[in-house]
Fold:
Amino acid sequence: MADFKLDGRMKVKSLKDNFKKTFGATLRVYKSVTCKGAMADEDATLASLRAEGYKGGELVVGSNLRVGSFEKKIAELYGIGVQVADKDDKKLADNDITLAAAGK
Structure:
């Protein structure tokens, strides 16, 4: 099982690329926690996107974490929204499956 690590210095493009490489699924990153509106700039760091009042920091997750839990952890840590989609980025993954299953 692969671990996936992210921190505030990571750029959105690196986050998405590393997520795809680790789990095989696509990660959509938004500027707001509601996942409505604009997508985050690929060159922005997670720290620069972090909403006021959120602590940021480092997060390490395993492939057995549920999609919904992962999305919630990112929202709680950075105040930004992420959505996990299938490997072809055609449909969103079910919140009850694992990150590993989302990429299959």
